[in-house]
Every structure is written in C-alpha cells, then in structure tokens.
Amino acid sequence: MSEVVETREQLQHLARDRALRNNTYRGINYPGLRLERGDFGGATFERVTLSQAELEGVDFSRVTLKQVDLRQARLAEALVARTTISDCDLTELSLAAALVEDLEVARTQLMNLDLQGAKLVDCRFLGCNLYGVRGARVVMIRCTFHDPAPNGAAELTKAQLAGAALIDCDLSGANLYRADFRGALVVRCNLRGAILTAAQVDGARFIGCDLTGADLPDGLRGMM
What we know:
224 residues; mainly beta; eight-stranded parallel beta sheet; 2 helices
C-alpha cells in the first residue's frame, strides 16, 4: 500500500521495513542519506533534496523525479528503467556501471555526470546540460540528445567519451566542442550539424555516421 512520505523519520521507518516502493516522497530534505540496494520501484519524488546521498545499487524502475536535488549523489550500479526526470539538479551525480533503460530527462542540470562503465539504452535527454559528462567506456544505444528551444543545441562540451560505444544515437546539432572520443566506437549515429571542433578522435572509429554540416576536427576530416 502506497504512502505520502513528507518527513525524514517516515522515510527511515519505511527503509527499515523495506517498504519504499510506490510511495510519493514530497518536500523531504535529507542530504547524505545512506540507503544502498534500496527498492524504490514505482515511487514519485517531488521537491526532495538528496544531495550527496549514498544510493549504490538502488532500483529506480518506473520512478518519477520532479524538482529533485541529487547533486553529488552516488547511484553506482543502480537499475534505472522506465524512469522520468524533469527540472532536477543532478550535477556530479554518479551512475557509474549503472543499467539505464527507457529514461527520459528534461530541463535538468547534468554537469559532470558520471556514466563511466554504464549502459544506456533508449534514453532521451531534452534541454539538459551535460557539460563535462564523464562517460569513459559507456555504452549508449539508441539514445537521443536534443534541445527543443529555438536554435538550441544539446550541451555536451568537453564530454569524456574515451573508449565509449555509441550506436544508433541522435546527436544532431549537439555541442561536442573539445569532446574526448579517443578509442571510441561510433556507429550509425546522427551527427548532422554537430559541433565537434577541437574534439580528440585518436583511435576512434566513426562507422556509417551522418556528419552532414558538422564542424569537424582535423583528425576526423582525415577519416572521411
């Protein structure tokens, strides 16, 4: 049976009882929460502060987050599936080695997001700031990065994608200035009109990608 949870004490009680699923968590200020391997399946978080929380291995399946502060929180090895995130601050959030499927993120700060070793499938990032995203060895399949604002561009400046695999992703018009693609595998990705100025591409392979109108670094021009 679901509950509306509005205090730290309620949250602590439900964590002890392993009854975290399907609840609505609203207006809670709980920075530094430690709750590893918790199961929040089907839960809704509204106006909640969980900055610097330790949430390794949590189940965030079918979760909705609205105006949530997860700055510097750790969700390493988490399961994030069929989840919706909007108007949140996830600056320096760690999703290292996480499995992320069917995720939609809108109007959210994701600067220095840690995706190292994670796998993302069918994820959509709309109007998000992914400046400096740390995605060494990340696998992304059918992921979309767009900014729906007039003349907007998905912000991925200085993205760290060394050794990553990007397959069937849509990065049309994205700002990938000074991105690090060293040793990356990029297959059938839409990079039309993307900004790749000063990107590092040593050892990278771009296979079957659409680079029409993209601003390419010298190293990538030599591959075309």
